[in-house]
Amino acid sequence: MIPAVSAFMDDDDAGIGVHDDPAAGESTHAPLLPETSLQGRRAPARQKPQPSSSSVLPAIAWTAVLLLALAGLVSYGRPQQRHGGVADPMEDDEVAGAGLAVEVAASRGVVQGVSEKSAGPALLEAGRAFDWTKGMLAWQRTAFHFQPQKNWMNDPNGPLYYKGWYHLFYQWNPDAAVWGNITWGHAVSRDLIHWLHLPLAMVPDHWYDINGVWTGSATTLPDGRIVMLYTGATEEMVQVQLLAEPADPSDPLLLRWAKSEANPILVPPPGVGLSDFRDPTTAWLNPTDSTWRITIGSKNPEHAGLALVYKTTDFVHYDLLPSLLHLVHGTGMWECVDFYPVSTTSRPGGEIGLETSVPPGPGVKHVVKVSLDDDRNDYYAIGTYDAKDDTWTPDDAAIDVGIGLRYDYGRFYASKTFYDPVGRRRVLWGWIVETDSERADILKGWAGLQSVPRTVLMDTKTGSNLLQWPVVEVENLRMRGKSFDGLAVPPGSVVPLDVGKASQLDIEAAFQVHLDSSVAGGAEGAESYNCSASAGAAGRGVLGPFGLLVLADEGLSEQTAVYFYLVKDANGKFTTFFCQDALRSSKANDLDKKVYGSLVPVLDGENLSVRILVDHSIVESFAQGGRTCITSRAYPTKAIYDSARVFLFNNATNVNITAKSLKIWEMNSAYIRPYPSSV
Ligand code: DQQ
């Protein structure tokens, strides 16, 4: 399932050179709704919708979808004109907030029972507010990441596949570009890339969810029915669990949702805080008694994060089980818990994802993921699910959930997976927060992105981490590609790469590190480096940093660096770090700019490899086939539109690097438009 990063790494003898990639050029004309492909790299074959007696849309709805598709066909096949028609920043250099008092409210989340949701007013202290022009702000909107047409978006909710369509719901504020008034936005796709925005799925209209239709998950029952469980914030700001089902199961678009008469189906149990009880998971069948289980995150008075387990047969009545699925001291409130099986055996045709109810046993481990409210990062651990007592034990307690591995070492939160029965894969979405100020969000009129959907698999080579990789359909957006083979990057050098437009890119690079045995190892070894505490790409070490600069201007006054940094210890052992440096990503100061990153496992004989998706204000990076991932935001003021560039760099003092292979594709824009009736 994972596209082989090494597919083009074998041509050892390829000389230094730059050439257009002919295959890449073929995929310019990506599909429109309603089409799908799991092949990647090529425009998929056209596929008609397949209505069956149980899946026939009302005639009007189908007509509307087809009209929309036709309209899209006319406009597609060339990079989309976007950003409100602003083709060049210099066209629109009017200062966006000129003469406008932009009110930034104090924390709303905390008052309403969840934590603060965005970079707060602190970014505006001491007169840091930058004069963003309309052109700069318009450029920040992404081209192939899912985002609503306007306003605030946070967590992905209830992803599912139903009668030919992928459904994505999300936390949305219909009224403003800041968190609040939370409803469920809804969009559908044939291929996880191109989306139709649908009418709101659920709005706060009952006493039990009047303060917010919060996060939830979908379960597909064996007979095909969909059950949606979600959290409601009541009139009294109590967190309760709620049940909804499609009002018309024959509608593949699932336009209308019926909230259960039995709501609320769960209230906080004794001993659980009224605002510490949220985000029910997808249900799984316990094999010991063939009844359903769900888990819900919470915390105890000692500040341990924990996951409660409930048993149900009908999704209306529930029993709280005596044991917790898991608890970790000191981790605080667990939001958006996710729990799913992964296959630990490698298969000749490629690894596959597992459906949520696949029971524990040989070749199956279970992942627990939690979103830590304390630090707003998503942590996971791999372990064993004991179905007899509904408990889970991590493989390695030293990297237990909440204290060890993260899905992403940048900005990635409140994520959720679902099992895609068509692709036989587990797909992950995460909410990518803004790192600009709320003032800028209000000026630009939107805030929040979803990551590209990622397949999630066990890394059967290391046996100790997951692999995340953009779903293969992303490759259908690749247009003109360029290959650069065997480029030498000596210490202290910056190598420009002529790739044309550089705001929408898919980059795959493999580096050879020419290690000289005379390089002395440091006494502290791996302890001596920490991406976040370092000076980033500007800090020179013996064996790093080296990698790529994206969203850089010609003079390198703005740049986002994606890089490796090697450390050799006194015993000659190497440790590899993978980092992303946003410190110099923009000249503007009203931004939260950091260096992100962590260790990345590199096995004997492996090159260092990275895939980078650049999409305007987001840079998503995957090292070593997705063992370590970093997503950061960038809001350049100069490196935008035609001024965005890409460079290789090596800021190490004592190591020669060869970019053994490097491919860079310009990416088309995804087709993300409203469903006609929803405007
Ligand atoms: N977002 C939702 C909550 C969840 C939090 C509210 C995580 O249900 O815990 O918008 O970002």
Write the layout of secondary structure elements.
Blueprint: E1 17-21, H1 22-26, H2 59-75, H3 134-140, E2 151-162, E3 165-173, E4 183-189, E5 195-202, E6 213-220, E7 226-233, E8 239-246, E9 257-259, E10 284-286, E11 291-299, E12 305-312, E13 318-320, E14 326-328, E15 334-343, E16 364-372, E17 377-386, E18 391-394, E19 405-406, E20 413-420, E21 425-432, H4 438-444, E22 446-447, E23 449-450, E24 454-458, E25 466-470, E26 478-489, E27 493-497, E28 504-514, E29 546-552, E30 560-568, E31 574-581, E32 595-599, E33 608-615, E34 618-623, E35 628-633, E36 645-650, E37 656-667, E38 672-674
Parallel strand pairs: 2-22, 5-38
Antiparallel strand pairs: 1-26, 2-3, 3-4, 4-5, 6-7, 7-8, 8-9, 10-11, 11-12, 12-13, 12-14, 15-16, 16-17, 17-18, 17-19, 20-21, 21-23, 21-24, 24-25, 26-37, 27-36, 28-33, 28-37, 29-30, 29-36, 30-31, 31-32, 33-34, 34-35
The structure holds 2,5-dideoxy-2,5-imino-D-mannitol.
2,5-dideoxy-2,5-imino-D-mannitol binds at residues 114, 154-155, 171, 182, 214-215, 231, 278-279, 335-336, 371, 414.
Describe this structure as you would to a colleague.
The protein is mostly beta strands. It folds into two domains: 285 residues, Tachylectin-2, Chain A (5 Propeller), CATH 2.115.10.20; 195 residues, Sandwich (Jelly Rolls). The strands form seven sheets. Strands 1-26-37-28-33-34-35 form a seven-stranded antiparallel beta sheet. The chain has a six-stranded mixed beta sheet with strand order 22-2-3-4-5-38. The protein is built from four helices and 38 strands. A hairpin with a 2-residue loop joins strand 33 and strand 34. The structure holds 2,5-dideoxy-2,5-imino-D-mannitol. 2,5-dideoxy-2,5-imino-D-mannitol (DQQ) binds next to strand 2, strand 6 and strand 15. 2,5-dideoxy-2,5-imino-D-mannitol binds next to strand 2, strand 6 and strand 15. It catalyses: Hydrolysis of terminal, non-reducing (2->1)-linked beta-D-fructofuranose residues in fructans.
